[in-house]
Design goal:
With about 325 residues, the chain is an all-alpha fold. It is built from 12 helices and no strands. It has one domain.
Length: about 325
């Protein structure tokens, strides 16, 4: 494998960074303000709604989200193996889990920087780890779009749009072919002032991972619907819509990278998507509750994985 190509760095104007940070803070503040104002205006519908806690649906939601995060650690480990990076699964899972805590820092890039730093500390080749992270992002977005395309006919059937959504599936798969993905990723990385990938995954491995990622979106969407069922009694007919809304919220949140963890943006997507199923204020209140619930589950998952990896390491050290 050839050495990484150095990309010349342009000088950054000293006044530009604080200006961008101020603009970012204003955007986040404005989004939070408008969501809060909408919730206040709709408070009557929220207060009068027949809220009821159904514990078993809440338990199912927690299990589904824990499974979703576990699947993400498995995918990360498989991506590393695909690039011939040998890392024990518990260590790879703990590295992935620790890095996702950085997603709450504005910019989203810190999650990947922290994972690269942790991997380097373990003696792993950073260029191959970086390639795995590029594929992880691409597969995450493409699989979310594929899940949306598959489920679109099940919640709003329109012959023309349905045909386009189904046609999008092979197009997205073609974008991940090495002959297409290599130049596309090189172009994107050039915009970020990063060197191009030295290696790519085989198309067969990419398709298997893409299908696995799609399944994980069904799991996460089911977790979101379980929570909606637990507190709002949302009907089973809305399950495909909630799965689509969850995948769409992820894609939009990734595009709006200036918002830490897509805060505000994801809630707006959920509220708009469920407008026909729930009163607007109720949909927003549920979306905010989903944010808190997923954060709690995420922190619990990180704690379990990191503690499990540390326990295994301690046992090996005393063996």
């Amino acid at each position: 494998m050839s050495g990484a190509v150095e990309v010349p760095q342009r000088p950054v104007r000293p006044w530009l960074r604080p200006l961008l940070r101020a603009a970012q803070m204003l955007l986040v503040a404005a989004t939070v303000y408008f969501l809060a104002a909408y919730l206040v205006r709709s408070w009557a519908s929220v207060k009068d709604y027949d809220w009821a806690l159904r514990p078993w649906w809440l338990v199912l939601s927690g299990v589904a989200f824990l499974l979703f995060y576990f699947l993400q650690t498995v995918f990360w480990w498989l991506l590393l193996r695909g690039f011939a990076v040998r890392s024990p699964f518990p260590l790879a899972a703990a590295t992935w889990a620790k890095s996702i805590l950085a997603r709450y820092i504005p910019g989203n890039v810190f999650m990947y920087l922290s994972r690269a730093w942790l991997s380097h500390a373990q003696g792993l080749p950073v260029d191959r780890v970086t390639a795995a992270m590029v594929y992880e992002q691409a597969l995450g977005v493409c699989s979310a779009l594929v899940a949306m395309a598959i489920l679109f006919p099940f919640w709003e059937y329109r012959p023309g749009v349905t045909a386009l959504s189904l046609i999008a599936i092979p197009v997205l798969m073609a974008l991940l072919h090495p002959r297409v993905f290599a130049p596309l990723s090189a172009w994107a990385l050039r915009l970020l002032r990063r060197p191009p990938l030295d290696v790519t995954l085989g198309f067969g491995a990419v398709l298997v991972l893409l299908g696995s990622f799609v399944v994980s979106w069904f799991v996460a969407g089911a977790g979101a619907w379980f929570l909606a069922r637990a507190v709002t009694g949302l009907a089973i007919e809305a399950l495909p819509l909630v799965i689509v809304a969850n995948a769409l919220a992820y894609v939009v949140g990734m595009a709006a990278f200036v918002f830490p963890s897509g805060i505000g943006v994801r809630e707006a997507v959920f509220t708009a998507s469920l407008a026909k199923q729930l009163p607007g204020g109720v949909a927003l209140a549920w979306a905010l509750l989903l944010r808190v619930w997923v954060t709690v589950i995420e922190l619990a998952f990180v704690g379990l994985v990191v503690a499990g990896e540390a326990l295994l390491r301690r046992r090996k050290g005393t063996a």
